[in-house]
Amino acid sequence: MSKATPEALDREATGLLRSIEGKGTQLTPKERLKIPQQAMPAQDPVERRSNMSEVTYGYTEAQARVEAARCLQCKKADCVDGCPVGVDIPGFIKAIEDGRYNEAVTIIHQANILPAICGRVCPQENQCQATCTVGKVHKDALKAVSIGRLERFVADHERSTHGCGVPEVKPETGRRVAVIGSGPASITVAADLRREGHAVTILEAFHRPGGVMVYGIPEFRLPKAIVEDEIRTLERMGVEIRTNFLVGRTRKLQDLFDKDGYDAVFIGSGAGLPKFLGIEGENLVGVFSANEFLTRSNLMKAYDRERAETPIFQPRKVAVFGGGNVAMDAARTAVRLGAEEVNVIYRRTRTEMPARAEEVDNAEEEGVRFHFLRSPKRILGNEDERVVGVECLAYELGEPDDSGRRRPVPIPGSETVIEVDTALVSIGNDSHPLITQTTPELETNKWGNILTDENGKTSIDRVYAGGDIVLGAATVILAMGEGRKAAASIHALLGGDAV
Amino acid sequence: MNRILEKQQLAPHVFRIRVEAPLIAEERRPGQFVILQIDSEFGERIPLTIADADSEEGSITLVFQAVGKSTRQLAAMNTGERIANLLGPLGRPTEIRRFGRVVAVGGGIGVAPMFPIVQALKREGNQLTTVIGARTRELVILEPEMRSVSDELIVCTDDGSYGRKALVTEPLAELCEIDPQPDLVVAIGPAVMMKFCVETVRRYDIPVMVSLNTIMVDGTGMCGGCRVTVNGETKFVCVDGPEFDGRLVDFDNMLKRLEAYRDQEKRKLQECQIEEVRE
Ligand SMILES: Cc1cc2nc3c(=O)[nH]c(=O)nc-3n(C[C@H](O)[C@H](O)[C@H](O)COP(=O)(O)OP(=O)(O)OC[C@H]3O[C@@H](n4cnc5c(N)ncnc54)[C@H](O)[C@@H]3O)c2cc1C
Ligand SMILES: Cc1cc2nc3c(=O)[nH]c(=O)nc-3n(C[C@H](O)[C@H](O)[C@H](O)COP(=O)(O)OP(=O)(O)OC[C@H]3O[C@@H](n4cnc5c(N)ncnc54)[C@H](O)[C@@H]3O)c2cc1C
Ligand code: SF4
Ligand code: SF4
Ligand code: FES
Q1: Nearest CA to A494 among A461, A453, A459, A467?
Q2: Taking 90 as the threshold, does the pLDDT of residue A220 lie above it?
Q3: Is the pLDDT of residue B146 over 80?
Q4: What would be the CATH architecture of the domain defined by B101-258?
Q5: Residue ranges around ligand 2 (CB below 6 Å)
Q6: Which atom of ligand 4 has the smallest separation from the CA of A73?
Q7: Residue of A nearest to B88 (CA)
Q8: How many domains does chain A have?
Q9: Does the beta-carbon distance from B84 to A243 stay under 8 Å?
Q10: What is the pLDDT of residue A131?
Q11: Which domain holds residue A315?
């Protein structure tokens, strides 16, 4: 993030662009490495504390061209290995450098159909940017080529100019596929199969499609209009979307074949079951799962207190448990709802936080306080069963655990109390249990994740699964990768290109 | 879809609507509910029990009390209008089997959700005594319907304006004293009423099934807003319930949780009363 205004950043970039443009492809790697990384223009931290608008504005055209010039166009592009879906990163960045924006989008689309979303929400510093040569030279993944920001830039550019149009759909095959859920895994499956000419119906439990991207990730990080655009593209391709349809209740999985005559089913029902800590006081008034708090604010628009009918708890002093993206989103939503004080309580240290680095910085700029190496022991309530505080235990880092991260161990007798009236539990989600509960033949692991083979096929014939329901709580891009794989298997099952 | 086919007022603030919903009508079982939303953009998602269904016509019946803003908006809708969103059937169906002698207690609006349960229990050959209670005569609902599916029907009102002057717990206690004891008690109504029914039955060692009406958002197990403490464990009413053995439910905590949004609900209700006055 940058303190400079977007205009100042653009002016600087324009100047830089002029000085490098003349040299064109003549820039040496050394010269490229000297080009300063372009800062992300963003809303002023004080101002954005009280609005839901997107925090970052995205690169200007000049900034994007300059940032693209930082890429060394490596022969062996390690960045591509870091991207879970293998986007041709040097390819699209070269196209940006040359100003061929629609082509850049076409290149990305081959591997990733949601670049405007991934550019915003991928944890790039752990993926494509973690392996980028430029980052390695500077010994900091955060100084790598800003691949995500560039991806976002071209995707937004294409969105505003409709440069690429609606994907082409092959002639109808007469085969019908039901896709359960409408998160990134399901969107990918629907798009891929529809392109092949199969009839696709998305069945979504909520009244609005988009999965976590509409009910979980807040507007200030991922504007709903972007997700809506992607959904509209699916509809234009002829994908049918049925909302208010809960598989397992409105129809059992097997009935989708027996009663409704689908030829194949994809399950992309996500990791929807909020985990709680199981500590004393967790059912007091004022304790919410991050899912509930975020759903009320995002999907139900409860932040708009005048117009929305759904109420949301008015937080004053808040404790957020957890250190992932969900915890950051919950904390920053609480700030925007007018909380005076927001405390993030995390068991490990800042380096172990799974949240995107940019969002942790953003949260800090917005005044969120971090308490590392602390974990809640119990939640304290008053006689009205309303939250009045959290008792926390201090931790220290011990031996590394299975994940290679040093395991936090509690320090006996280190209890302290933080006075709060709201506690937001964001320690992760388990898989959505409804389909597995109502479909006993569907094999799962002990966490309730559906088991699939390497082609995304489940233990039931013609039933495929992918995304968080298979991986456990993961990421948008991983869910899409899974969707792509399952779509290819389903296409093969339905006769492949022979139909 | 979701068109209101018929609307009827049963009592002050209590309405019955028949809504076109073929899939839900086909799949629903007694004890299940729907979540509906009147306006996709800013509406609230409200849970209502499926009071009856006609799978041939493809319709479900909802009986609701206009208590706050959203239920008042629903009450203001007319035949032919469509409810924007209707999701269901939700929750686990009631366990319907032959228990033997069953006492069913419905309080206020709770009589409506109890109707399909009593109907199904009767069909399974149970012997049914039904107690329905209301504050006053004009709030007694579904009396003929309940009579038609019960072996015995007791009506009580708090003020004695109709039937017996008593709270439902009084006849309930007497029915538990009769030998042989009931094999099952079903109690559905306001949370406080269910709490006291459970207290009444507790010393007889009779299972008492209650249907919990917690605050909900999604109704699919995703938010945890509907959670209650049952036997010391956290349960989600929308997927683990709505029915539980009342003896294991922490009603005091549930009652407090129901009040979480009281101030905001009051404000919304006032807004809508002002609008009604203006109209
Ligand atoms: C608050 C939050 C912030 C996050 N931030 C990031 C981030 O910054 N970057 C990132 O990469 N990832 C992030 N994630 C994770 C990411 O959103 C998920 O990994 C991803 O959305 C999973 O996609 P999916 O397709 O598996 O399903 P989901 O997006 O979970 O969607 C599943 C959909 O299925 C529907 N559904 C469930 N059961 C049924 C059923 N029985 N019948 C019909 N429909 C059903 C649900 O209503 C839902 O709409 C975040 C997650 C959360 C909760
Ligand atoms: C499984 C289930 C089945 C239900 N079945 C019926 C039914 O068949 N008929 C009927 O009249 N009511 C039923 N309810 C209650 C009904 O959902 C609420 O009355 C309704 O949501 C209130 O909305 P409102 O905006 O009009 O009132 P609000 O202004 O929101 O609230 C008014 C009162 O209702 C309580 N309340 C608010 N939201 C809910 C909620 N989501 N669930 C429960 N109580 C709430 C509040 O504590 C308050 O006392 C059921 C609830 C559940 C959970
Ligand atoms: S999809 Fe994500 S990981 Fe892949 S290149 Fe784009 S931002 Fe990087
Ligand atoms: S590794 Fe970095 S510098 Fe090399 S091609 Fe990829 S983005 Fe460009
Ligand atoms: S209503 Fe959200 S989990 Fe039950």
Answers
A1: A461
A2: yes
A3: yes
A4: 3-Layer(aba) Sandwich (3.40)
A5: B 33, 44, 46-49, 63-65, 67-71, 109, 112-113, 213-216, 242, 258, 265, 268-269
A6: 5
A7: A250
A8: 3
A9: no
A10: 95
A11: 276-427
- Minimal Cα–Cα distance from A279 to chain B, Å? 11
Please name the amino acid found at residue B184: L
- Paired sense of beta strands B233-236 and B227-230, if any: antiparallel
A442 and A326 in one domain?
A: no
pLDDT tens, A6-54?
899 999 999 999 888 776 667 899 999 999 999 999 999 999 999 999 9
Q: Give which of A250, A276, A277, A426 to mutate to test B binding, by max B Cβ within 10 Å.
A: A250
- Sign for the CA dihedral angle at A126, A127, A129, A133 comes to positive
The pTM assigned to this predicted structure is 0.93
How far apart CA A89 and CA A135 sit, in angstroms, is: 15
Partner A contacted by B37 (CB < 8 A): yes
User: B250: Cβ–Cβ under 8 A, 6 or more apart, which residues?
Assistant: A283, B228, B229, B230
* Closest C-alpha to ligand 4, atom 4: A74
Helices (H), B42-150: 69-75, 111-123, 143-149
- Cβ <8 Å between B88 and A250: yes
CA of B43 to the centre of ligand 3 (A): 36
**Helix or strand run (H / E) with residue B112:** helix B111-123
Asked if A265 and A374 sit in the same domain, the reply is: no
Q: What's the token pair of residue A219? A: 């507007």
First and final CA of chain B: distance in angstroms?
Answer: 29
Distance separating alpha carbons of residues A8 and A20, to the nearest angstrom: 19
**Mean pLDDT, residues A313-327 taken together:** 96
DSSP-assigned letter for residue A351: G
d(CA A378, CA B216): 25
**Dihedral, B138, B142, B147, B149 alpha carbons, nearest 10:** -170
Give the pLDDT band of residue B57 (cuts 50, 70, 90). very high
Average pLDDT (A378-382) is: 96
Domain of residue A356, CATH code: 3.50.50.60
Q: What is the pLDDT of residues A297-316, one digit of tens each?
A: 999 998 888 899 999 999 99
